[in-house]
Design goal:
About 30% of the residues lie in helices and about 10% in strands. It is α/β, with parallel strands linked by helices and about 160 residues long. It has one domain: Rossmann fold (3-Layer(aba) Sandwich), CATH 3.40.50.620. α5 crosses α6. The two termini are about 25 Å apart.
């Protein structure tokens, strides 16, 4: 939601588009994650109402992937997608780049804001936009931290005291 609030610094209108990249919704060491992470559209909508979102576009999987996710075109991002955490998540960043490209083609934003907390993702998207000559200014939103220094994230709900 911090990224959405950042929109007010740039424009009077702040449209938001959300989607779950299917490759990120998979079983992990925590069986509850695969069914809950990035799958809270009603909660997202409620939170967005409270942070000055003017338009929410939440496309269906059929709209984003008309031939199905498995058959969807991927954007290969060598040197970025396969290093750091990408090495532990094969195919994730290629799928993410494809999804961001699809959303950008639908919405056609002049500016898109992504959090700096997911820095590898931000670098990847900037490279994709540059190499595909997409007319979008990619802006990084600074990391927001809790009082104890933890970077704020919707994924923090999956952390335990350890």
């Amino acid at each position: 939601m911090t990224v959405t609030c950042r929109c007010a610094d740039w424009h009077a209108r702040s449209p938001v588009t959300t989607s779950s990249v299917p490759s990120t919704i998979r079983p992990s060491s925590d069986p509850t994650r695969s069914s809950t992470i990035s799958r809270t559209p009603e909660k997202d909508e409620e939170l967005l109402r409270n942070v000055n979102c003017d338009l929410l576009h939440r496309p269906s999987a059929a709209e984003l992937y008309p031939n199905g996710f498995v058959n969807a075109v991927r954007i290969d991002m060598p040197g970025i997608a396969d290093v750091l955490c990408g090495g532990l998540r094969p195919g994730h960043f290629e799928a993410l780049a494809g999804t961001v490209n699809r959303l950008s083609n639908i919405v056609q934003p002049g500016i898109a804001i992504f959090g700096e907390k997911d820095f590898q993702q931000l670098v990847l998207i900037r490279r994709m936009v540059d190499e595909l000559r997409m007319p979008i200014n990619i802006v990084g939103a600074p990391v927001v931290r809790t009082p104890d220094g933890l970077a704020m994230s919707s994924r923090n709900q999956y952390l335990n005291e350890r």
